[in-house]
Design a protein that fits this description.
There is one protein chain. The protein folds into three domains: about 80 residues, Arc Repressor Mutant, subunit A, CATH 1.10.10.10; about 100 residues, Periplasmic binding protein-like II (D-Maltodextrin-Binding Protein, domain 2, 3-Layer(aba) Sandwich), CATH 3.40.190.10; about 100 residues, Periplasmic binding protein-like II (D-Maltodextrin-Binding Protein, domain 2, 3-Layer(aba) Sandwich), CATH 3.40.190.10. It has ten helices and twelve strands. The strands form three sheets. Strands 3, 4, 5, 6, 9, 10, 11 and 12 form an eight-stranded mixed β-sheet that branches. Strands 1-2 form a two-stranded antiparallel sheet. A two-stranded parallel ribbon has the order 7-8. Helix 1 packs across helix 2 and helix 2 packs across helix 3. The C terminus is likely disordered.
Length: about 300
């Protein structure tokens, strides 16, 4: 049995498509079918229920999938372990990051890291936060970057930084003209924010509930850039990380306001899989991030 056969099997489980599994492995769809049939014949079991409208994995298939992934993961770790023996910082580094961190906080970190570790092939995927956790749990990413880390089975989270959250509005908004702004001044304002199911969106909603703030209107967007554009052109306000709006503030398109009676911070964390072998590339990237005492969640 070859490793390619195990990969074809795992890809079929993940994609639920013979054609997609074939495409991933650059073989024909019939070759995928032959490989699966050969495995089923070898073990005398059926791994997949096939039908015109139904494709599902059997309990036997689920067991084989777990075993196959374990074998493939072990094989993938051989190269990094050998590199570690040579004390060479090289090889791939797969990072899954939430959009706001990946687009605003990560570029400078990557630039510095690549200057000192040119032999590391850094691959970045931009995701929704819940997908970042899944990527780390399932081994699709070596490290994950999220805000407001939460406890998740099989994942260790190390807080490495805090974003300062500020109120933003257009220069013509009434709040921009006030010398001091308090959280109570947000009462009955028109507000735009992240979607409510995102970590930052949940945190903002929690703060408003704690301070009994009711909004006149609230609109949600799925990305930070849209939030900023809405604040620029409409009579609305928002709360976002200061570093993500520095360019618009410098250009005079937005005004950043620090609330007098509430300091809003957004913790940032790096995720890694519990029990995972730490490659030299992972170690050095985490050293770049974790340059101070951190708080770990397991």
């Amino acid at each position: 049995m070859q490793l390619l056969t195990l990969k074809i099997f795992c890809d079929l489980v993940e994609t639920k498509s013979f054609s997609q599994s074939a495409l991933r492995n650059k073989i024909t769809q019939s070759a995928v079918s032959q490989q699966i049939r050969s495995l089923e014949d070898k073990f005398g079991v059926v791994f997949f229920e096939r039908g015109r409208r139904k494709f599902s994995i059997t309990p036997e298939g689920q067991l084989f999938d777990r075993a196959a992934r374990s074998i493939l993961d072990s094989y993938e770790q051989i190269g990094p372990r050998l590199h570690q023996l040579k004390n060479v910082v090289s090889g791939p580094l797969r990072i899954s990051t939430a959009y706001s961190i990946g687009l605003h906080g990560l570029p400078d970190i990557l630039r510095s890291f690549r200057e000192t570790h040119s032999n590391v092939d850094v691959q970045v995927q931009y995701r929704r936060s819940h997908t970042v956790y899944e990527d780390v749990q399932q081994g699709r990413a070596d490290l994950g970057l999220v805000s407001f880390p939460s406890r998740s089975k099989g994942v260790i989270a190390d807080v490495f930084d805090e974003d300062e959250m500020v109120l933003i509005c257009s220069p013509n908004h009434p709040l921009a003209l006030k010398k001091k702004v308090f959280i109570s001044d947000l009462q009955d304002q028109n507000f735009v924010s992240y979607e409510a199911d995102t970590p930052t969106g949940k945190s903002i909603s929690r703060v408003f509930r704690q301070h009994n703030i009711s909004l006149a209107n609230q609109h949600e967007f799925d990305n930070l850039e849209t939030v900023k554009r809405a604040v620029e052109v409409d009579n609305v306000i928002s709360i976002i990380p200061l570093r993500t709006a520095e360019m618009e503030i410098a250009e005079g398109k937005l005004v950043a306001i620090h609330l007098e009676d509430y300091a809003f911070k957004r913790p940032l964390a790096v995720l890694r899989k519990q029990g995972q072998v730490t490659t030299s590339a992972m170690r050095e990237f985490m050293n770049t991030l974790l340059n101070k005492e951190v708080l770990s969640f397991e």
